[in-house]
Amino acid sequence: MPNSSLDGKFKERLKLFIEDKSNSILKDHNLKGNKSKYRAFSITGDIRVVYEQVGSGILLHDVGTHNQVY
Fold it and tell me: Which among 10, 17, 61, 63 has most CB atoms closer than 10 A?
């Protein structure tokens, strides 16, 4: 079942990420270990977006709770 509140927060944070990925609200960070080529930013306290920088673009890989995506 869709979560419209989470969907709205995702869109809000993705827009912020596109405008300024260094914004501290996003808590953007490098991942470690076998995911070291990826980065992640926060949608809510526990929801993360895992992404990869590909050339001058961004490829989103996963969205989920901390435990789901790491």
Answer: 17
